[in-house]
Here is the input.
Amino acid sequence: MIAESGHYALVLALALALIQSTVPLIGARWRDVALMNVARSTALMQLLFVAASFVALVMLHVTSDFSVANVYENSHSLKPLIYKITGVWGNHEGSMLLWVSILALFGGLVAAFGNNLPLSLRAHVLAVQAWIASAFYLFILITSNPFLRIVNPPIEGRDLNPVLQDIGLAVHPPMLYLGYVGFSISFSFAVAALIEGRIDAAWARWVRPWTLVAWIFLTLGIAMGSYWAYYELGWGGWWFWDPVENASLMPWLAGTALLHSALVMEKRNALKVWTILLSILTFSLSLLGTFLVRSGVLTSVHAFATDPTRGVFILLILCVFIGGSLSLYAWRAPALKRGGLFAPISREGALVLNNLFLTTACATVFIGTLYPLALEVLTGDKISVGAPFFNLTFAPLFVPLMIAVPFGPLLAWKRGDLLGAAQRLTAAGLASLVAIALLWAWTRGGATLAPLAIGLAVFVIVGVLCDLAERTALLRIPLSISLRRARGLPRAVWGTAFAHAGLGVALIGIVCETTWNSEYIGAIKPGDLANVAGYQLKLDGLTQRQGPNFREMVAKFTVSRDGEKLSVMTPSKRNFTTRGSSTTEAALLTRGASQLYISLGDGSADGAIAVRIYHKPLVLLIWWGPVLMAFGGVLSLSDRRLRVGAPKPARATRTLQAAE
Amino acid sequence: MRARLAFAGLLAAVLMTAAPPARAVQPDEIMADPAKEARARDLSRELRCMVCQNQSIDDSEAPLARDLRLLVRERIAAGDNDRQVIDFLVARYGEFVLLKPRFSPHTLLLWLIPPLALLGGGAALWAYSRRRTNAAGEGGESDVELTTDEKARLERLLAAEPMPKKPG
Here is the structure.
């Protein structure tokens, strides 16, 4: 009964989406307010029905109703409750249902909080949103229905892939989807603007909060996925340039570019046509990511060819939406009025430079991800494009970008003073040189590039501080006044500062982890001692333990440094009987921002066990960086100017913002 | 011996699904000479485990990856330099084994698109900004600064707009 209700709710949501995708457009054409307002009610009702459908699937999983194929294939009655719930999106059908739920959520939010939008713009935006929704409802109902029943229900389920039974992966997909799908709003706004043929700075002001929300979630989602890979996959890697990861990185790069170009558009009414294109591209890349991950084309081109229903369907959606929106763009964009002029050396110029590098980086990831597929389809040649390629091509693009980061906020709009900005960054330059010199002296004869990269990161971080000091006139006026000024700075300025500093922090983490990582690989017996980076790890013993749906072997290590006992670490290896597969649960010991990492290998007949112990210096900065960035995003979002649904800025606010 | 190893690798590839899990770089694989071992590790990171999804043989748990790791170490022990080891593996397994494809006619676009995108984008921006400046500057080369008179007019225009813009 629950399954049928869920199924039916989804069908109703499709019907509502079809109404929402047509009626408001007719309303906008006829200037009929009632018809345009249909968009609002259908969007809200659609959200209600999709939510009902999603809840139905959750209930089926929680109650372990194995008469439903999706539950049978991905659940087990002994699975802990939390993984029964998160298992809902740990599989293809469920994750697509989550995808459309989030799409409906964003549509609902625009409907509920979009009261300050012009009526026709809101009608258009929600209609475009409904086109996307309709396409994906059809996809789910036709090819990936999670509510299908099995004729002879089995007694027990086949369990969720054990690697996915982890809290990190439970939260990661919803975050990622909130990001991916969130960009649909900027896409819908862009298409709506193209249909209406009207676009101005106000448009950018409406779009930016939505883009920012999506970007925050995508940033956190990617960071969380990376941390999950780090501790769960068992060899301490945190980014693999895997196509699935690239699929999420591409919208992030394009979305970051979009955030910056929308800023130019909002402040200076320039880069309008480019911002529209970026909005379209960002969501197109999200769609592409969905296609890459969901069609199975990545596992192998042949697997895709043998069961192409799903892949072809998404490919069709992809072609219609990307092709359609780009054609619309080619047709309507030239008619859009161009705005604001600026000199190459200016805040706008810096943001354009940012866009150039970010989109090139995005293009690099794009080509590296899709080239092997295209080559195999066209010529049959098989090549691999992996981490070494991306490291080689990506890094040179990010170095100039990061050098430019501190300059951007210090340049004035329209026409900036590069020399003046450079002078104000003297402290950052000096700090960076000192850092490089110190590191060279300290690691004499070691890596040469790493200190330079750290110097760059220091430059970015201190550059941010310089900017803040400049804005608060720190050290030039009494401290109390500076502090008052700091409080008075727009939140967006603080947001920028945190986001940019986060970039530097992440870079330090990345460089330290890759350069000064120490490892110990060996087979040790209980009582043996391993030495890693000044830490002594003693294997006390091995024990067997029974978990809810697995058996595990736990090793106990006593960690000490200079004879002083610090902690106990218990890495384990789990065997999941139902699927006959095993996972490694690495043990992590955090010391400041550095971590000790133990992962177990196989045991041998003589009682020894293979272990891999790593010391990863400052590794946590890799994820603190993105968290800082996301925090910056939240700060910026809370800026009065951008607050979703904030009343139109009154004339009084103009004086407040003179500081910028 | 080598032929048998390759055969074992192939067999492992076929039996992949049923294979018991093994960890990346086992203790028994490590070479006695740390310098050679470091070379082996560096090479391993550039080589793909062909039965895995986008993993280097250094990371992979698959039996085939282990065989390849042993093969790399065997070649290094035999005195091959890095290039020879790579050539040997490419001759045996094809270009597919390289995670960083070689620069060749069929990877031309792969290697050239990123720099071309950057150069092309930069050139387009330069041309665009020149065109805009020329169109706007009329007499004065690249001077886009407004006169006081124009500024005052702009202020009035901005004030007259329904949606107030913030000053820059």
In short: Chain B has two domains: 2-102, 120-160. The two ends of chain B are 74 Å apart (CA to CA). The helical segments of chain B are 2-15, 34-46, 63-77, 82-93, 108-137, 148-160. Residues 2-102 of chain B form a domain with the Helicase, Ruva Protein; domain 3 fold (CATH 1.10.8.640).
